[in-house]
């Protein structure tokens, strides 16, 4: 049995309490996304989108090929989040909703944070850069002790955000319109905070 202390600052690994900030997740099992070969396709699309980035910036037009890699990597990360959540909280408290922060850095993009909501907890992970998995925990807490808010992007289009706040600070997650989906995460969190979610 594993799980977090009531204040979220400690994690029980089955033998001893470990400070949440010191938990390092082991290598997660391969996801369906990886096993089916979709990750390699996503990486190739990412390289293609980098070439299209400057065209987009110059033309100020939106090309669906720019968001395709982000959609792919989002699917992969959500599958990783489900594994990471099960590792931390066990099979009886699965992830109900999650989202990943992705933003452009120069002509490429990176994933840096991700959030998972269960029937009782909210966990914010830091992702192993540049192309890894959720590796560290920056916030863990009971849903009722965490706050979330969504913000629309610039001009209602670019970089919508989901801000998660708790005992360890404030963690803004950025995304692209049409890819980033804050609403399911907010709804799952609200239900969990009210104690309305029952699993098992």
Brief summary of the model shown:
With 200 residues, the chain is an alpha+beta fold. 32% of the residues lie in helices and 30% in strands. A four-stranded antiparallel β-sheet has the order 4-5-6-7. A three-stranded antiparallel β-sheet has the order 1-2-3, with no helix packed on it. Strands 8-9-10 form a three-stranded antiparallel β-sheet, with helices on one face.
Structural class: alpha+beta
Biggest sheet record: 4 strands, antiparallel
Count the beta strands: 10
**CATH structural class:** Mainly Beta
**Helix fraction by DSSP (H/I, runs of at least 4):** 25-40%
Q: In order across it, which strands form the biggest sheet?
A: 4-5-6-7
Mean pLDDT: 83
Number of individual domains = 1
| CATH fold description | PH-domain like
- The coarse overall form would be globular
Radius of gyration (Å) = 17 Å
The CATH architecture would be Roll
**Uncertain runs:** 56-65
Distance between the termini: 15 Å
Helix-strand sequence: EEEHHHEEEEEEEH
The proportion of strand residues reads 25-35%
- CATH evolutionary superfamily: Pleckstrin-homology domain (PH domain)/Phosphotyrosine-binding domain (PTB)
Give the count of helical stretches: 4
């Amino acid at each position: 049995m594993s799980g977090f202390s009531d204040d979220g600052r400690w994690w029980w690994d089955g033998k001893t309490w470990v400070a949440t900030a010191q938990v390092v997740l082991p290598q997660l099992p391969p996801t369906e996304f990886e096993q089916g070969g979709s990750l390699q396709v996503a990486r190739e699309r990412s390289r293609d989108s980098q070439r299209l980035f400057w065209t987009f910036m110059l033309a100020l037009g939106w090309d669906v090929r720019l968001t395709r890699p982000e959609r792919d990597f989002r699917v992969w990360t959500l599958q990783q989040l489900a594994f990471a959540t099960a590792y931390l909280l066990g099979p009886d408290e699965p992830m109900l909703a999650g989202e990943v922060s992705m933003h452009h850095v120069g002509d490429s993009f990176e994933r840096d944070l991700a959030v998972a909501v269960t029937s009782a907890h909210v966990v914010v992970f830091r992702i192993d850069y540049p192309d890894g998995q959720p590796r560290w925990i920056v916030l863990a807490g009971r849903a009722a002790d965490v706050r979330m808010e969504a913000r629309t992007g610039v001009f209602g289009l670019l970089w919508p955000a989901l801000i998660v706040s708790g005992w360890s600070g404030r963690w803004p997650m950025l995304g692209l319109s049409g890819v980033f989906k804050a609403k399911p995460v907010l709804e799952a969190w609200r239900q969990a905070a009210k104690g309305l979610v029952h699993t098992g």
